[in-house]
Amino acid sequence: QVTLVESGGGPVQAGEPLRLRCAVAGDIYNSDHCIGWFRQAPGKEMEGVAGIEGTKTYLADSVKGRFAVSRDNARNTVYLDISSLRPEDTAMYFCVADPRWARCVGAVPGPRYWGPGTRVTVSS
């Protein structure tokens, strides 16, 4: 059984920082799986924004300079840190896991495992 659970979302003011968490349960955390972060803004397509596998990380061009992805192996948790939120960051944020890197970062569709998502609403 694999479970991904996101937390940390909510209403925030533009310019504030935010940390999203993805708690990973099951036998994939230390196996050959990557963890990714996707988001879907209202009326827009799903977008892969970050990924991490071992020491390898990925950030989409649209979020570079403001987003960071990291992991805490002792807590089986992956973080998405946003340094300065913008109204356009308003979206549902999902944590995903897959054995294939390209799926974790949204280069190809279909990550195998998804969390239920956490909503981030940024007001200006």
Secondary-structure topology with pairs:
Layout: E1 3-7, E2 10-13, E3 18-25, E4 34-40, E5 47-53, E6 56-59, E7 67-72, E8 77-82, E9 91-98, H1 101-104, E10 113-114, E11 118-123
Radius of gyration: 13 Å
Spell the H/E element sequence.
EEEEEEEEEHEE
Unreliable spans are: none
Mean pLDDT: 94
Portion in strands: over 45%
Main beta sheet: 7 strands, mixed
Number of helices: 1
End-to-end CA span: 40 Å
Overall SS class: mainly beta
The shape, in one word, is globular
State the share of residues found in helices, binned by percent.
Answer: under 10%
Number of strands: 11
Which terms summarize this structure?
3% helix, 11 strands, 1 helix, 7-stranded mixed sheet, mainly beta, 124 residues, 4-stranded antiparallel sheet, globular, single chain
What does this structure look like?
This protein is mainly β. Helices cover 3% and strands 51% of the residues. It has 1 helix and 11 strands. It has one helix at residues 101-104, and strands at residues 3-7, 10-13, 18-25, 34-40, 47-53, 56-59, 67-72, 77-82, 91-98, 113-114, 118-123. Strands 2, 4, 5, 6, 9, 10 and 11 form a 7-stranded mixed beta sheet that branches. A hairpin with a 6-residue loop joins strand 4 and strand 5. The termini are far apart. 34% of the residues are buried. The model has no long low-confidence stretch (mean pLDDT 94).
In a few lines, what is going on in this structure?
The chain has 124 residues and is mainly beta. It has one helix and eleven strands, in the order βββββββββαββ. It is globular.
